[in-house]
């Protein structure tokens, strides 16, 4: 997946060396990691290239920047004075920023009857800051091929390594990033050969503690089935992302991954032939276990009303 933000995303602070001292202009302006810079000196910011010339001019003129950032549901205005860096003799604002991010996630479901709507889950996606999903302007979903696995261990989550090309392997577009997944539409119907038939779902009150399975990819593009245990499941009356606690029990999966790894988020959870949810978080101190989200909340976020009425929310 490749996502482009609305504005530019602040992903970190850095110190600027000036006159033999270290200063942090971004922190001094009370700009936080996770903020989205929307406007500078009255100009809309669409990408990182928009920022540098404004900073250079303000620095040369000795004037502070008027910055509008979005923090959650609030828009905040602040002043930031660029500082000349002794190392390269250029003006800096002491912020690391990004306007796009790319990473690997696992598709949870495809709903072909409503204009090929699909959903992905990407809780471990690297664009998350302070446990909040960033707002996106647009994004692309592409095919990927898993090349290797970095195993998880207690305290150190592993990850899937994969090859993909945004230009060559485009499969569709992404329209929404929320706490319940990444949603969008596909250009063409997908065929797997094994999981092509529609699958019924189970609501949260129908999920049972005990054996279940997950579907995920460990090598290439091959979808495989692995054993897990539902340790607990909460019958939820309102949307929440942590509805189940799961434990990986399959010896092959444990040997290959050490448990749950980044990139496995979104892997469908199946019990008694029904789709019940998707893998979300790994427990940092126990890589064999983690959380799952109930499928009904992903469907609700996608605008699929389980009472029979569909209202487009995701795309």
From TrEMBL:
The yes or no answer to whether the keyword Protease is present is yes
| A Pfam family reported for this protein in Swiss-Prot or TrEMBL | Peptidase_S55
Tell me where the transmembrane regions lie.
none
Q: Which InterPro entries match?
A: PDZ, PDZ_6, PDZ_sf, Peptidase_S1_PA, Peptidase_S55, SpoIVB
Keywords for this protein? Hydrolase, Protease, Serine protease
EC number(s) of the enzyme?
3.4.21.116
Give every Peptidase S55 domain span: 74-314
Its domain of life reads Bacteria
Q: Does the keyword Protease apply?
A: yes
EC top class, as a word: hydrolase
The entry's protein name is SpoIVB peptidase
Question: Which organism is this protein's natural source?
Answer: Tigheibacillus halophilus
């Amino acid at each position: 997946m490749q996502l482009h933000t609305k504005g530019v995303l602040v992903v970190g602070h850095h110190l600027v060396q000036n006159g033999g001292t270290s200063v942090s202009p971004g922190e001094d302006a009370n700009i936080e990691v996770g903020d989205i810079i929307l406007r500078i000196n009255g100009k809309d910011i669409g990408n990182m290239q928009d920022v540098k010339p404004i900073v250079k001019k303000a620095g040369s003129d000795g004037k502070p920047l008027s910055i509008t950032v979005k923090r959650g549901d609030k828009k905040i205005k602040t002043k930031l004075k660029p500082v000349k860096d002794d190392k390269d003799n250029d003006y800096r604002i002491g912020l690391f920023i990004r306007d796009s991010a790319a990473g690997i996630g696992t598709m949870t479901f495809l709903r072909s009857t409503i204009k090929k709507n699909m959903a992905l889950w990407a809780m471990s996606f690297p664009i998350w800051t302070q446990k909040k999903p960033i707002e996106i302007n647009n994004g692309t979903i592409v095919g990927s091929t898993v090349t290797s696995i970095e195993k998880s261990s207690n305290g150190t989550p592993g990850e899937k390594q994969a090859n993909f090309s945004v230009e060559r392997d485009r499969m569709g577009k992404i329209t929404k990033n929320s706490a319940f997944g990444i949603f969008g539409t596909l250009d063409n119907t997908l065929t797997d050969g094994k999981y092509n038939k529609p699958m019924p779902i189970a609501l949260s009150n129908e999920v049972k503690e005990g054996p279940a399975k997950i579907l995920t990819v460990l090598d290439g593009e091959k979808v495989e089935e692995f054993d897990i245990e539902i340790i607990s499941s909460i019958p939820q009356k309102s949307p929440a992302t942590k509805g189940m606690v799961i434990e990986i029990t399959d010896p092959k999966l444990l040997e290959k991954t050490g448990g749950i790894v980044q990139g496995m988020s979104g892997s469908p959870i199946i019990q008694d032939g029904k789709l019940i949810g998707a893998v979300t978080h790994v427990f940092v101190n126990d890589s064999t276990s983690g959380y799952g989200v109930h499928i009904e909340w992903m469907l609700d976020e996608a605008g699929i009303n389980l009472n029979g009425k569909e209202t487009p929310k995701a795309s």
